[in-house]
Specification:
Layout: H1 7-16, E1 18-21, E2 25-31, E3 39-43, H2 51-67, E4 75-81, H3 90-104
Parallel strand pairs: 3-4
Antiparallel strand pairs: 1-2, 2-4
Helix pairs in contact: 2-3
């Protein structure tokens, strides 16, 4: 799974991407250019709590992304955890993620 790492890459997704929200997570999606590999990023803001809490949120997001076959060709996706992500199972988050990807028009 290739991840988005640099600040410039994050900025590109934020400036050009579309946002989709759910109770369990939020996503930002942008289509990639020709020849660019699809990538994904996992974000847990500091306002959620301690590092242990945020790391659990990111683990749940990573498992949900694997279950949904992310990254998908042609798209860069950033997944943001919410305060509800921590207490949810990866399967439940995967269902929400799949629903958001469908709304975003990201095909398998």
């Amino acid at each position: 799974m290739e991840t988005i790492k640099s600040h410039a890459e994050f900025e590109r997704v934020f400036s050009r991407g579309r946002r989709y929200n759910d109770v369990l997570l939020r996503i930002r999606v942008v289509s990639t250019g020709e020849g660019d590999p699809p990538r994904v990023a996992f974000v847990a803001p500091k306002r959620l709590g301690t590092a242990v809490y945020r790391n659990r949120c990111k683990r749940v997001l990573r498992e949900a992304a694997r279950a949904c076959s992310l990254p998908r060709d042609g798209y860069d996706v950033i997944l943001f955890s919410t305060d509800k992500t921590h207490d949810s199972s990866p399967e439940r988050v995967a269902v929400s993620l799949e629903r958001l990807l469908e709304r975003a028009g990201v095909v398998v």
